[in-house]
């Protein structure tokens, strides 16, 4: 996408017959090094969301990530699912034996579901109600249907079916800033917006205003310096996999 954008200013590249690609922001940030804005959208690898008002799970979390570079301030990076919570957070809560907060999921009767162990009996809720459903649908059409990838009933649940080839769809958009504006001026303006947001007054109970991606950036800096904290259950799962593969297990520090 970045190579094409250097020639045309904007490039949109779609993928089909892919699989789970990991964190969406990883791909949206790739164009940053080329002084470009990156956008990444994907179809989820399992359906956890019905159409608004329905009961059949025909949609996934269908995430989007957008990365905009700054000059001296950190890049502004949005990475979000179209559901209130990503399904990975549900699985993490189940692994830790924790309850989910109300608002993440509902059961098939429309009642709040807070036990992650019963997640298969319910649905994830979209952000903003029908608006989130609309986003999930449109992202699915763009990342799936437009690419000749699976969408709706055709999505293979890679958590349950290990034999059937998946046909996951994704797309990346790269926008060459130089085709629209002076790169330095644009980045400086992004910095000004960043600082304006950071310096704006806070509501009671809030220590600071955060920008998209700021918490992840702070965590990354901290993890590089101090290591990655892992819950005991997750550590054991990873080490079991390591033993099965003949790989040296992780060690606590």
Comma- or semicolon-separated keywords:
253 residues, alpha+beta, 5-stranded antiparallel sheet, 7 helices, 8 strands
Fold and architecture overview:
- This protein is α+β, with helices and mostly antiparallel strands and 253 residues long.
- It has a single domain, classed as Malate/L-lactate/L-sulpholactate dehydrogenase, NADPH binding domain (Ribosomal Protein S8, Chain: A, domain 1, 2-Layer Sandwich).
- The chain has 7 helices and 8 strands.
- It has a 5-stranded antiparallel sheet, sandwiched between helices. A 3-stranded antiparallel sheet has the order 6-5-7, with no helix packed on it.
- The radius of gyration is 20 Å and the shape is globular.
CATH superfamily: Malate/L-lactate/L-sulpholactate dehydrogenase, NADPH binding domain
Which regions are unreliable across 5 or more consecutive residues at pLDDT < 50? none
Elements, N to C (H/E): HEHEEEHEEEHEHHH
Question: Structural class per helix/strand content?
Answer: alpha+beta
- Per CATH, the class reads Alpha Beta
From the alpha carbons, calculate the radius of gyration and give it in angstroms: 20 Å
Oligomer: single chain
Taking all residues together, what is the mean pLDDT? Answer: 94
**Within the largest sheet, what's the order of strands?**
1-8-2-3-4
Brief account:
The chain has 253 residues and is of the alpha+beta class.
What is the topological layout?
Elements: H1 2-8, E1 10-18, H2 24-28, E2 36-42, E3 64-68, E4 76-80, H3 87-96, E5 105-107, E6 112-113, E7 122-124, H4 130-143, E8 168-176, H5 183-198, H6 214-226, H7 232-245
Antiparallel strand pairs: 1-8, 2-3, 2-8, 3-4, 5-6, 5-7
């Amino acid at each position: 996408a970045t190579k094409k954008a250097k020639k045309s200013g904007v490039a949109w590249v779609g993928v089909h017959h892919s699989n789970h690609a990991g964190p969406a922001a990883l791909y949206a940030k790739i164009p940053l090094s080329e002084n470009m804005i990156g956008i990444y959208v994907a179809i989820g690898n399992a359906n956890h969301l019905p159409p608004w008002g329905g009961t059949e799970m025909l949609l996934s979390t269908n995430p989007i990530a957008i990365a905009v570079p700054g000059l001296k301030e950190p890049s502004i990076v949005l990475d979000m699912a179209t559901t209130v919570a990503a399904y990975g957070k549900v699985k993490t809560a189940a692994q830790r034996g924790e309850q989910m907060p109300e608002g993440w999921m509902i059961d098939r009767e429309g009642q709040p579901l807070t036990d992650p162990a019963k997640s298969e009996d319910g649905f994830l809720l979209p952000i903003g109600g029908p608006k989130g459903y609309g986003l999930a649908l449109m992202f699915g059409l763009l990342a799936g249907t437009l690419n000749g990838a699976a969408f709706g009933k055709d999505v293979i649940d890679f958590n349950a079916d290990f034999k059937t080839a998946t046909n996951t769809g994704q797309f990346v958009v790269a926008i060459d800033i130089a085709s629209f504006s002076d790169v330095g001026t644009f980045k400086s303006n992004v910095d000004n917006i960043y600082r304006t947001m950071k310096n704006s007054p806070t509501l009671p109970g809030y220590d600071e205003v955060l920008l998209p991606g700021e918490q992840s950036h702070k965590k990354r800096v901290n993890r590089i310096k101090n290591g990655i904290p892992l819950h005991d259950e997750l550590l054991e799962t990873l080490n079991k996999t390591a033993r099965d593969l003949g790989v040296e297990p992780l060690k606590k520090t």
